[in-house]
């Protein structure tokens, strides 16, 4: 047996929502929250009001410091050398839209191309379709290989002098497949093409070293990483700072304003117009501190082992079809002849929380030749009992549906 310092039972106890009901297997949609996050957020609201980067009173100054310290914590998590590279957003979706509108739109010309993998969540497809339409450019598909992973071998042929950006997910939210990011970045950079990496799923399982990989842009949402909703991050490599211009105007994103114009603040504040999600940042900061106590590689092995166990058990059931990539903590599946919507309804009725449908990835569904599927996603707070409950609920549902 592998020696690990990961204590699954102790980890589970950090999450007050982890009870008997429901069996929560929907962490790829959003993760449950640890008590430390709930406490930090409660303190923020309870201990008196203050905003950041504005008022001069003590609480405001203290919070401003905390807000900026949290930025440094994220920089440390991502191995980003420069804290200014960490821009607070309201989620991965907003972070990707920011790159589309502030970085790409000013330079995108008619006839230019944006290369996007077929496995992407809509958050890493629609912003590119929108900016392409705004500039009469086009979005080109990077197809999947026979294993269902974006085909990096096809990159050299698809990258052209007109390719202005490559958009690629670190990990699929459906299959859990992870393309070879390093290879993709090297090939794209050799063509002079910057890369937007959607880390919304990937960061939970392996935070990247953005400096070592030389990532241009990286987006993630705090809520999938045990943090609050309404908060996310865009990492932007400093080499692109001078090519980025403000995309939302408002308070505190400028140094000077008059009726004849304004001067934007430097990055990151240029992109943080208006009062930010301070409570969210405070809560997320507590999560990032708590995360340091966890052996994450071991926690990840625990998730993959659970997904293996569930998949092996499901394979014993007739008609089981798996879309799961090797070593994925996410298990997407169907049963032949049974509609995913029927199955999910019966599972929900039995207190099993997972998700069925197209998972905001319609092109991927088309590539897989399906209209939708079920998805059980495993987090370190899940355990063998959760799998037993899933299997027993599933067996009951399959009996009803096969009648
Ligand atoms: N990309 C992927 C792969 C995702 O799974 C998600 C969330 N489902 C997103 C992007 C968008 O994240 P958010 O909705 O938190 O902005």
Automatic annotation (TrEMBL):
Its cofactor is pyridoxal 5'-phosphate. CDD domains: SufS_like. It comes from Enterobacillus tribolii. This is cysteine desulfurase. Signal peptide: none annotated. Belongs to the class-V pyridoxal-phosphate-dependent aminotransferase family. Csd subfamily. One of its GO terms (molecular function) is cysteine desulfurase activity. Its EC number is 2.8.1.7. InterPro entries: Aminotrans_V_dom, Aminotrans_V_PyrdxlP_BS, Cys_desulphurase_CdsA, Cys_dSase_SufS, PyrdxlP-dep_Trfase, PyrdxlP-dep_Trfase_major, PyrdxlP-dep_Trfase_small. The keyword Transferase applies. NCBIfam families: FeS_syn_CsdA, PRK10874.1. Residues 23-390 form the Aminotransferase class V domain. It holds the Pfam family Aminotran_5. PANTHER family: CYSTEINE DESULFURASE, CYSTEINE DESULFURASE 1, CHLOROPLASTIC. It catalyses: (sulfur carrier)-H + L-cysteine = (sulfur carrier)-SH + L-alanine.
């Amino acid at each position: 047996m592998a020696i690990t310092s990961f204590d699954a039972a102790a980890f589970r106890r950090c999450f007050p929502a982890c009870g008997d009901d429901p069996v929560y297997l929907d962490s790829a949609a959003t993760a449950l929250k640890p008590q430390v996050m709930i406490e930090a957020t409660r303190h923020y609201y309870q201990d008196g009001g203050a905003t950041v980067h504005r008022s001069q009173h003590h609480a405001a100054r203290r919070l401003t410091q905390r807000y900026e310290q949290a930025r440094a914590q994220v920089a440390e998590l991502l191995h980003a050398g420069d804290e200014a590279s960490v821009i607070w957003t309201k989620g991965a979706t907003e972070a990707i839209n920011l790159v589309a509108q502030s970085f790409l739109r000013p330079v995108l010309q008619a006839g230019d191309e944006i290369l996007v993998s077929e496995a992407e969540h809509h958050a890493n497809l629609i912003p590119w379709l929108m900016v392409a339409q705004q500039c009469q450019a086009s979005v080109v598909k990077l197809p999947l290989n026979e294993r269902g992973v974006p085909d990096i071998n096809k990159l050299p042929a698809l990258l052209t002098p007109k390719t202005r950006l490559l958009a690629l997910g670190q990990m699929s939210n459906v299959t859990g497949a992870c393309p070879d990011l390093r290879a993709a970045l090297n090939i794209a950079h050799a063509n002079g093409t910057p890369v937007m990496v959607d880390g919304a799923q990937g960061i939970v399982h392996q935070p990247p070293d953005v400096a070592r990989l030389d990532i241009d842009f990286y987006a993630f949402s705090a809520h999938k990483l045990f943090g609050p909703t309404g908060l996310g991050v865009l990492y932007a490599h400093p080499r692109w700072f001078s090519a980025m211009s403000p995309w939302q105007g408002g308070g505190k994103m400028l140094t000077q304003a008059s009726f004849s114009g304004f001067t934007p603040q430097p990055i990151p504040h240029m992109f943080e117009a208006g009062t930010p999600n301070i409570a969210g940042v405070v809560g997320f900061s507590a999560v990032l501190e708590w995360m340091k106590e966890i052996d994450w590689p071991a926690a990840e092995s625990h998730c993959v082992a659970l997904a293996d166990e569930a998949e092996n058990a499901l394979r014993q059931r007739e008609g089981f079809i798996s879309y799961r990539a090797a070593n994925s903590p996410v298990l997407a599946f169907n049963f032949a002849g049974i509609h995913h919507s029927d199955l999910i309804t019966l599972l929900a009725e039995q207190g099993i929380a997972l998700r069925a449908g197209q998972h905001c990835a319609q092109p991927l569904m088309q590539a897989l030749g399906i209209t939708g599927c079920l998805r059980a996603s495993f987090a370190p707070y899940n355990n063998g009992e959760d799998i037993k409950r899933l299997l027993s609920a599933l067996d009951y549902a399959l009996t009803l549906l096969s009648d």
